[in-house]
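Chapter summary example.
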Amino acid sequence: MSKNIFEKIKCPNCGNQEDFRIWESVNTELNPELAQKVKDRSLFKFVCSKCKNDYEIEYTTLYHDPKLRFMVYYFSNEPKDNINTIQRNHLFSTDVLKDYKLRMVDTKQKLIEKIKIFEDGLDDIIIEILKGLCIINIPAEKKEALKAIYYYGKEDEKITLLVMYNGIQNEYARVSIKEYDNLVKDIETKQPKVFSLVESNNISNYIIKDNRPDNEKIKEETPSPTKENKQEENENIDNDEDGEVDSDEDEEFDDEDEDNIANDEDDDLIMSNDGEAKIKELINTYYTKFLEIARKSDIITNAEFEIYPFLCSIIDLIIEQANINTTVIREHIYPSIMNEKKWNENQQKAFNERIYLYDEMIMGKNPRAIWLNGNTNLNMKEEKMKCLVTFGDILYNPECSKDYYNAPIRLYGVFESINFTNQVIFPMIELLNKYTTDILNFVDSQDE
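The structure predicted for these 448 residues follows.
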């Protein structure tokens, strides 16, 4: 269903305050009238009833088309660290969302673009490849002014891309449907299982195999930008863009181009079968070591399950800090572990909830540290230590796994508490440092 709430909005012009409807989600089957409001951006427009000025309001929303089976999550003003949280929150909805295309976007124009692509029955992964081919054909003197490339539409057996520049006239690039179909046939792609950013600068993450011969990978019929003077189409450019493209887009096709080459190489290494096998080996090796330590305390009853989400969060954190794409961990390693352990639906949900809790610590929340009694020399500013303290709370009091911040404090004897800290947590700190070192060594070995 479509969800909405009302929030007070203050007019920047006259200071008038009034309620504004914010659509947290849009279901086009239940509310088809909202689809057009997203496309013309009126869903985000606030019109002051007093001075009649209008403004676009920034807020996050989920666009859901049940008929065409796709969802696009537009996150407005969200920190980049929140991307992993969004992905993990939906990681175990795969049965419900089977065969869905799940995307995230960070601008309204990208939201509209994804909707157009899917409504036209096209694969956005192939469209992003076409954008890359288009960039190849842009003259060098224009590349410096390139702002962004968007899918514009499909008509008369042609796919049209809108090429936008800073300071010079926008252009169109066209490619035949036949050429698009050839790319679909030659390039084996994979759909992400979680909400993901699918863009030109990370497209290699979604290509399984490119079956084109090397000399065919840049074909003669690649989209070349050309100026057009049709009044109607020029007006469409103005209406479609509404004079607004986020400044982040500039970097996307300029300064980041060279950096993305290196990043894509790292991503490809992480996505390899050997890389996946090594990650799983690290997790399983340290699982055994952490479990051996946990068994030294009589009060710990939940270690066999709780160690897995903790270790997965740590390896995800360290690899992400090394600027390497962690999609493989979320899409392959987590499900693989669950399949091997034969966890039921409740256990999978609990795993996801624990991952989310560690994410909150990484993104700034503070752990309760109920087992510390305020007496510690731990560096609580370090993300992995905050995760360890949270992990300790869950081992110390399993009620924390149900409602971490509201769980009642569990009291143990003095000897049991001291034993938990000295024989469990402190050895785990040392083991966590070794685990981190081995993860970094793995990352370094992938760079060689």
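To summarize the output: The longest strand covers residues 17-27.
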